[in-house]
Amino acid sequence: TILVGVSDSGAVTGLERDLKTLGQRQTLDGYEQFLRSTLNTSLGKDRCAQVKIEFASVDEDTVAIISVPASGRPVFVRDGKNVTFYARSGNTTQALDSEQAHNYITTHFK
């Protein structure tokens, strides 16, 4: 689960500043469309169809709750012409080179 509008320390910061960056669609619907478009482009439409995006009010602020199910196969991140495989290592996310990605994939996806 990913929380947007919550700082690393757990303080609610809200989505209001993010919404202001959306041009004419400064609504939660516009924000979800922005998130889905970004995820579809970066991760693929097939994987993102399973991503659940919800919004919750906390005090006077709104946060996004993004639920991402575990994948039974590798998911690569596309950024233009670059394709990268990432893996969690403790509380960090690490980009893996080709050899590391191959080793990770062969041991984690069978």
Topology, pairings included?
Layout: E1 2-4, H1 16-19, H2 28-43, H3 45-48, E2 52-58, E3 61-67, E4 76-79, E5 82-89, E6 92-96, H4 98-108
Antiparallel strand pairs: 1-3, 2-3, 4-5, 5-6
How is this structure best described in words?
The chain has 110 residues and is an alpha+beta fold. Helices cover 32% and strands 31% of the residues.
Task: Provide a brief overview of the structure.
This protein is of the alpha+beta class and 110 residues long.
Helices, by number, come to 4
The percent range for strand residues is 25-35%
**SSE succession:** EHHHEEEEEH
- Secondary-structure-based class equals alpha+beta
Instruction: Report strand order across the widest sheet.
Output: 1-3-2
Instruction: Give helix % range.
Output: 25-40%
